[in-house]
Each structure stands twice: as C-alpha cells, then as structure tokens.
Specification:
Layout (H helix, E strand, L loop, with lengths): L9 H6 L5 H4 L7 H8 L10 H4 L5 H7 L23 E3 L2 E2 L5 E5 L27 H10 L5 E5 L8 H12 L6 E6 L1 H4 L6 H9 L2 E6 L8 H12 L4 E7 L7 H12 L4 E7 L13 H14 L7 E6 L4 E4 L7 E3 L2 E5 L5 E5 L4
C-alpha cells in the first residue's frame, strides 16, 4: 500500500469491488426491479469499483452498470457474439477480422462491467492464461499483413505494469506492426490506475488509448486528472461512445460529453450504434435516430468534437460509418447496409 488513502489506490479499488446486492445497497437504494434482477439469474457478470459506485446517483450512469430484468429478454436478431468474433479467432487471444489489424484479447477482467457489453459472453469468465500468449506472438510475427494491434479484453489497463510492459515489448519487437492501441474504460472507472509509472510504459511503447465514455457525468475530477496526466506524458487518446436509449440519445447530452472530452484532450472518435448482444433491446436506439443526432451535432458544435456515427456490422463486417439515410434501406425489422468490402449486412432495428 502506498502513502495515499486506500481508496486512492487502484489495487485497493479492485480488491474492494462491489460484486453483490448487499454491497451495492450501501451506496444506493435499489428499485424493486434491480433487487429482483440480483435475486434471479444475471446473464452478465456484475462488478463496479467504489469510485464509480459513488457516481451512480446519476441515473444515466446507474442504468449502465446495475442489472435489471430487461437483460433476460432476448430479442429477434440478438446474438451472444454479435460481431462474429469467434468465427475469426486465430489463436486463443487473437481475433483477425480485418486484413491488416487484429484484436488482441489480453484479459477477460474489467474492474466495472457495462450492462450492454458486446463481449458479455467472455468478460468476468475464465479465459486462456498468459502462458498461451506465445502462440499469438508467433502468429503476429508470421502474418506480415498485420499493421495494427488493438489490445482489449476485458480491460488491459487492469493488468500489472510488469505484464502489460511485457506484452507491449513483444508487440513492438515485430517490425511490421506500426500501430498499437489499448481499449479501456479505466480512466473513467479506475482513474487512480493512471500512475506515472503506467504512463511511462504507454509512452515508451507509443500506445494510443481508445477510451470508453458514455456521459459527461463520468468526467469526474479524478478522471479529468487521469486524462490530463496521460496527455502530459504525450499519450494520444480517442473516445468511443455507445449510443444508448434514454441515457445519451439527445443532442445536448452528447454536446456536453464531447466538449467535455476535448477539454481533457480526448478526441471524440466513434459514436457507436449499440451492438445487438443478447438482452440489449432496452439500450438500443433506432438507427434513424442515430442519423438525426449526428446531423444535429454537425450543426451544433465544432467539427473537432464530432465523432463518426458507425454501425459495427453484425457477423464481422467491420465498422461502417453512417452519414445519412440514403446508405440504409429497411427490410422488415432490419436495416440493411453495405460495408467496406461491398457486402450487405443487416442490423436488427424493429419498427416502433
């Protein structure tokens, strides 16, 4: 334990995660639906750091991490693996969907679990151990077409400095890999993890961070300090925001978030249509609304603050930027669109 208060220590935060109803009720008075969800079967792992739990008085944030009965309602077109990652699994840790980039699943652990998680089939569950990484490094060494590695999971920034430095060192020894990114929500849910030592590792390996923000209420003083520390160390940061029904699906909420991110040197990058993972219907907005929102943002804020609105094509077609209604057509309860390869994909979007 270092000299700061225990709650300011990231390892203390992980060791004291809230993982059941009784612990959560010390922070919040739960609704009948929330209590019932805990008493039943929760299909997705539940955990939240004490830091983030203190922010859950904000209803938008609360709905993204506390289970409800809606998670047990499986809609048409929803899948356990909506992006078809398992069909493109090259090694126990690598998903190779795009020709020139791979997804490196370094861990299944997150300090806080989002209820709409695309990888709810994996996170919080046992996975291939680190001893199996050698196969992945060999794959990358022999696949010279790979230029970009996205380290994700789970959340790689919950790993120890030693383990993370070791993985990044191996990746940077591969000459054809030009870009290394890490997907993380740690600066939001575990900002005390952003230490000078971690920043030194990320700077040494020239890592970009792809951070997950969904609401301006997440930009706490601790998160602001964490992102400014990363920026002061020269670490590039972009954000990915999932569009969520009743949480951030209005222009002013998104304007507040995206300007707030620019103020801490995080570039808004993607506004993602919520993936059709099982039990996510209560989070998903109509695609038409997403198009209206991105047009509204272009008219209400500076271009630097406006992300791309994208749909990650179900089945592994990759991210498709949606600029207007002319890109999509409706076929019953699906919208149909074309990806970068010219292939047709469907996204479940039931008519209200």
């Amino acid at each position: 334990m270092h000299e700061s208060e225990p709650s300011d220590d990231w390892k203390w935060q992980i060791a004291n995660r809230i993982t059941n109803r009784q612990q959560l009720e010390a922070y919040l008075e739960l609704t009948a639906d929330e209590r019932a969800a805990f008493d039943g079967e929760i299909p997705l792992s539940f955990a939240v750091t004490p830091h983030y739990a203190a922010l859950l008085k904000n209803d938008a944030l609360r709905r993204t991490v506390i289970p409800t009965g809606h998670e047990n309602n499986f809609g048409t077109g929803e899948l356990a693996d909506p992006l078809g990652e398992e069909e493109h699994r090259a090694t126990p840790h690598l998903i190779h969907t795009y020709p020139d980039k791979v997804l490196f699943l370094a861990t299944t652990f997150c300090s806080t679990y989002c209820r709409y998680c695309t990888r709810s089939r994996l996170v919080g569950k046992s996975a291939a151990g680190l001893q199996s990484l050698e196969e992945s490094f060999h794959y990358l060494e022999t696949h010279t077409e790979v230029r970009d590695v996205l380290l994700s999971g789970g959340d790689p920034l919950t790993m120890s400095d030693t383990v993370l430095d070791g993985i990044l060192s191996r990746l940077r020894k591969i000459p054809h890999i030009r870009m290394v990114r890490i997907g993380s929500k740690v600066p939001v849910v575990l900002p005390m993890r952003i230490t000078d030592e971690l920043c030194d590792i990320l700077r040494k390996h020239r890592v970009w961070l792809s951070l997950h923000f969904i609401h301006a209420a997440e930009i706490s003083p601790e998160t602001q300090a964490a992102c400014r520390k990363l920026s002061d160390h020269g670490i590039g940061m972009v954000s990915q925001t999932v569009l969520l029904k009743g949480i951030n699906d209005d222009t002013q909420t998104l304007v507040d978030l995206f300007y707030g991110l620019l103020e801490i040197n995080v570039k808004p990058y993607y506004l993602l249509q919520c993936d059709p993972v099982r039990g996510s219907a209560h989070f998903r907005t109509p695609v038409e609304k997403g198009i209206q929102l991105i047009r509204s943002l272009h008219g209400n804020m500076c271009g630097l603050a406006v992300p791309q609105y994208v749909i990650d094509a179900p089945g592994g077609g990759g991210k498709v930027p949606i600029l207007g209604a002319e890109q999509i057509r409706r076929d019953g309860d699906d919208v149909v669109f074309i990806n970068y390869e010219g292939k047709e994909f469907r996204y479940p979007d039931p008519v209200a």
